[in-house]
Amino acid sequence: MAQNDIVDTTAAYSSPNASPLTLTSTPDTALVAAAKALTSARYVVAMTGAGLSAESGIPTFRGDDGLWAKFGEPRMDGYKRFLDDPHGWWRREVTQTQDPYVLELRRALEQAQPNPAHHALAGMERSGVVKTVISQNVDGLEERAGLTRLIEVHGNRSKYRCIGCGRRTPRDTFVPPAELPPPCSECGSIVKYDSVMFGEPVPPERMAAARAEIDRADCVLAIGTSVTVRPVSGLLWIAEAQGATVIEVNPNETRLSGVCDVVVRAKAADALPGLVSLLSAGT
Ligand code: OAD
Ligand code: ZN
Questions:
Q1: Which residue from 106, 178, 256, 275 has the highest number of Cβ atoms inside 10 Å of its Cβ?
Q2: pLDDT at residue 192, rounded to an integer
Q3: Which ligand neighbours the alpha carbon of 27 most closely?
Q4: CB 154 within 8 A of CB 136
Q5: What is the tens place of the pLDDT at every residue in 160-213?
Q6: Ligand in closest contact with the CA of 249
Q7: What is d(CA 138, CA 157) in angstroms, rounded to the nearest whole number?
Q8: Closest C-alpha to ligand 1, atom 15
Q9: pLDDT the model gives residue 255
């Protein structure tokens, strides 16, 4: 497996021993600490995961309420299976006979609207507090909430992407041809969803853009991610190793919690609007 291939590292996880430098016990105190860290930082980069969209009705992947708990963990060779038989993959797509977890996720994605956490994050971008968001989500809700400096490392389900030339096409302007798998109109190669499959390399230009932002950051805000899926999760460790202040917003412990400077143990849709209020009150 190549370095940039998307891979779940949950199995390799063991709980960290180190305790956070400033683990504040109640969300309110933690929020104040987070607001202070954000205002004293020069360049804040947020990294988001499925938890950001939980209040939009999109199930997370991992955790007790997650898709894996309900349907079992999917195979990690999705991209290989796509390449082995793209025609079969597209046939399952057209006949809506993909894995049950994919169908459930898709139903949720189709109805989802940005929630108060997305809007609060967009407000933090507008006010200049957050410079860039590196998102692992494919739901497009951050863009719909108005975020502009957004790197969707795992792609966007509302788009198609050619595996040959990388051309992205919005789904609503793409006319599926009679022929499957759909050929790219630019280069004739195969079109798939823009979302990155397990075992598929994250497009290198997206990883490079995300890494460049992490290298600029003196503070990272990790929101609703289990920090388990490489290579993106590694960026948070790089930020931490480079001395950035690390803030986590997550109702549950993650492998990152032990090295965080501030941990806000709350749902994103509660914590982020609270943070925005504190920031606008000048905390
Ligand atoms: P996970 O499902 O692994 O983790 C979701 C995280 O959100 C967990 O740590 C939860 O504790 C937390 N969480 C749950 N509810 C929350 C809430 N209301 N507010 C804040 N946090 C909450 O999701 P990711 O870390 O995003 O890849 O997973 C990474 C990648 O794995 C995804 O991008 C996806 C998947 O394979 C692709 O789709 C390509
Ligand atoms: Zn192409």
A1: 275
A2: 95
A3: 1
A4: yes
A5: 999 999 999 998 776 666 778 999 989 999 999 999 999 999 999 999 999 999
A6: 1
A7: 5
A8: 51
A9: 93
Q: Residue 9 C-alpha to ligand 2 middle, in angstroms?
A: 31
Please give the domain boundaries of the chain with CATH numbers for all domains.
7-57+113-157+202-283 (3.40.50.1220), 59-111 (no CATH), 159-194 (no CATH)
- CB-neighbour burial class of residue 205 (10 A; exposed 0-12, middle 13-18, buried 19+): exposed
From the alpha carbon of 249, which atom of ligand 1 is closest?
Answer: 20
- The pTM assigned to this predicted structure is 0.93
CB 49 within 8 A of CB 225: yes
Ligand number with the minimum distance to the CA of 166:
2
One-letter amino acid at 271 equals A
> How many alpha carbons lie under 13 Å from residue 54 in its C-beta half-sphere?
24
Residues with CB under 6 A from ligand 1: 6, 49-51, 54-55, 60-63, 66, 136, 138, 154, 195-196, 224-226, 228-229, 250-252, 254, 267-268
Q: Are strands 168-170 and 159-162 parallel, antiparallel or unpaired?
A: antiparallel
Residue 238's nearest CA partner among 247, 246, 248 is 246
Residues of the chain below pLDDT 70: 1-3, 9-27, 174-177, 283
Residues noted as catalytic: 154
Which of 15, 60, 65 for a ligand 1 pocket mutation test, highest count of atoms within 8 Å of Cβ?
A: 60
